[in-house]
Amino acid sequence: MFFCGFSRRTLNGLVGSRRRPTDGGSSLQAVVIFLSQNPLYPALQCHTLSVLTRRLPPPWALRAALLQSVQMPNAATLLNPPLLHPQPTSSPSKRTSAGSLESLQSNNSGAVHANFARGPSRGPSVRSSRSGFSGNETPYTNLGNGNRAPSRCLLTPLYGGADLSPNHPEPDDFLHNPDPRRDKSTDHGGHIFTARGIMNLGCLLILGVGLITLFAGYPLISHFTSHPLGFFGGFNVGGINATGQVPLINGNFGLIDAQTPKDAYTIDSYHSPGTQLQLVFSDEFETEGRSFYPGDDPYWQALFLAYAVFVLTVVQTNNLEWYDPSAVTTKNGALEITLSDKENHNLNYTGGLISTWNKFCFTGVVLIVSSVTLPGTNNIHGLWPAVWTMGNLGRAGFGASLEGMWPYTYDACDVGTAPNQTINGLPQAATINGDKGNGGALSFLPGQRLSRCTCQGESHPGPVHEDGTYVGRSAPEIDVFEAQISDGAGQVSQSAQWAPFNNEYIWFNTSDNLIIPNLVNSTLNSYIGGAFQQATSVVTQTGQSCYQLLDNCFSIFGFEYKPGFGDAYISWISDGKLSWTLNQPGMAADHAVEIDQRPVPEEPLYIIANLGMSLNFGAVDFEHLTFPAIMRVDYIRVYQPKDAINIGCDPSNFPTQAYINEYLEAYTNPNLTTWRDDFGQPFPKNKLLGQC
User: Fold this and answer.
1) Do 391 and 659 touch, CB atoms closer than 8 A?
2) What pTM was computed for the model?
3) Rounded to whole angstroms, how far apart are CA atoms 26 and 685?
4) Which domains does the chain have, with CATH numbers?
5) Percent of the chain, pLDDT > 70?
């Protein structure tokens, strides 16, 4: 409760204050008590207290002023209280003045003007004469001399101040005064089945069910509704890519394309008829307008670079085009790779290359088949379309990753791992029976970077043989096909690339090791190798109508292989038929150049498809070529035996991921064309060369 802007605590403090007798302490107590008990004069109370708190008059003057000025109200006044602030009259002399209040503060001789506490006289009702005020007049008393009531005083209502008596009834007393009769129902309680109670219980029930479902129900539901790993079309390591994850985004992104026909889920082996193989990966390319820019596809990525393979800083491919992701898309149910005569990065042509490097790989007995329409026509040469595979430790187009890795496939510690395939100029056959265009040198390769001769503690991806030596690692190549034109007819070269090399690049192509079912359509390729690679290749005529500018039909190409030694093999397929087979004993040890046998590639292989041009691959008929040239791929499918599924780019027996991560720049920066010069990394030390 506040009194004229002063709290009761303030009033009590004023009453209880102790001043010197000359300060009028006892008089102040009397004034405060008197004012607090007379609610009919609030204006007087406010002004008196504000004045007293500023400067107190002598006690006898205060007492005299109160006795002369204050008249106790009679009964009529109580029933009809006076206006606290009557309407001022037009005569200035009749206005209530507070000048005497100022004189009260300065007159110490005893004369106190009677107007100090003069009560207001009753005048016309403010309510009835509200329109009679002038512009600067108000219905409130003018205190005179420019003085106004202090801001801490609360101006009171028209008909008196608030009753401070604790016995005065107020409208909210029922909230504080209990009534046994009125509150009987509440005091004795009630039933809990109220609308609010039901809502509270319902809310708690929903929260409880939600928590139970989250922490108990969800694990159970996941356990009983999860599909086996075979649901994703992958086995062994679970149908995953090199990141170890199955794509979780919605859409057709499983290892097996959802649009692959069910009758294509199994196939008979081309090499061993009657042996059934199971589909482990497929892409039907049915979705229109797919993008193969980096990050757009879970398995394929198009390159953005000028393709070139460098060996000892010598360009090996001499491509005429710039590979651009815009040249690769899907249209009318097929993958389309376009070669156009558009200038790009100072090259006159723009082509396309996509691969599954470090995303999808396979190892073991594998059949890969592709249905392809070759670009151009069957009698104009110069195009270089290809579908091929490479070991995951080398990335096509990134020269630094390939130096000392391609095209090796070797697991022995001998001169075959050394630079130029010689040590101190020996064996002599490796210096005179080689590439005639390079002075008879058999090899210009820099040596196998990750060989079995690697010293312990050197950087090597592993694994390790039982004798403690490292397994020889590399980036071998097996081609599904490379198309060419010869003698006015379309052909495909189906080959594997090898290192180290046989004497004079001649492998042991006996009838047991070289099998060609149809000698009319297929012949041994005259190209057998050079200073940078050895090739085992057979050339086969294609279906002559399955070209872009002819019937635009599709032909099936592929290969089936078993890695390793002994009964290992590679069998190629052209136009849906077995074209030829190489058995591993054909790559046996060659004592003339002092090298051991070379295994059918054991590395995890990834898939590459490209369309370009190169003067190194053959002559180019610029005059008659038609642009744009388009290679169309209807599908690519990969099969393995049901009991020997092995997919993934980082298998435990031939790991790649840790090594790639350690030297990631060599696999992602195409401007680094060599491992040692550009990338600035040394080859691991070789114990055969006395470096351990």
Assistant:
1) no
2) 0.67
3) 109
4) 2-175 (no CATH), 262-689 (2.60.120.200)
5) 70
